[in-house]
Amino acid sequence: LEHSLISESEDPEGKYNEEWVEQVQESFIGILLTSDLIIIFLTLIVAYVLAKKTLTPLEESYKKQARFVADAAHELRTPLAVMQAGGEVVLRSDRSVDEYKKFISESLEEVKRLTTLSNNLLFLARNEKKKINLNIKNSFSDICRKQVEAMRSYASQKNIIITDSISDNVLVLGDGDDLIRMVVNLLKNAVDYSHKDGVVEVSLKKQNNKAILVIKDFGVGIKESDLGRIFERFYKADNSRTVNSTSTGLGLSIVLDIVREHKGTIKVDSILGKETIFTVVLPCI
User: Fold this and answer.
1) Per-residue b/e over 43-76, b at no fewer than 16 CB within 10 Å?
2) d(Cα 280, Cα 204) in Å, to the nearest integer?
3) Above 50 in pLDDT, residue 137?
4) What is the mean pLDDT of residues 80-106?
5) Are strands 199-207 and 161-166 parallel, antiparallel or unpaired?
6) What was the pLDDT predicted at 4?
7) pTM of the predicted model, to two decimals?
């Protein structure tokens, strides 16, 4: 009681309590402001990180698309420039029949290259929108045999022999046309980069519910530094593998797309100047 009387006599209007309340309010407001600033700062950081994560794939996709268009334009421009230059030379003066034949022959080679390129570009454009039906049964054995037979005439132009060891009844689910294109591209690649009078070996077997296709050539080989990039679109390795003027740099990229669509894997092993081995593994039934 005495303490209460003293407190009331010392602070008759309760000024001490008012000051304490004001201090608490000011502290509380300061804490709220600090918390708000921290929350805003953290929100900005999180938003920046999420935006960067979202935009990075878009940026990479845009860069890839721009590079793809530039590479395609370059591949289209080269044969056209060759034909234009040859035509201009031929028209400057009268030429012999042999010279005209040579020009026509060279132009046909460039036309073949343009045709191959346009077909590959059309396949890639359609393939991005196409859904593969993995419920269709295909005889992978028959596909490989037929494509080997068809490729033998092409290989004979370089005196290259194709040997095959293909097991029967290897069945694969998927798109038959795409599987044919995959085998053709791998065979053509092996023949193109084989030495003249060489051999291309093809084997197909079934092992543990897997179809294993191996195509081996004894040709120029691939540098170890190039192995990780040979499946990139329009990528071409060093000059030893680009001597073939009909190459568009899309064949192996198409092969990789088809293998992935069919839930398979592909790997390449190579010794420069000696051999290259492509191994495709697909689920089979």
Assistant:
1) eeeeeeeeeeeeeeeeeeeeeeeeeeeebbeebb
2) 9
3) yes
4) 84
5) parallel
6) 46
7) 0.67
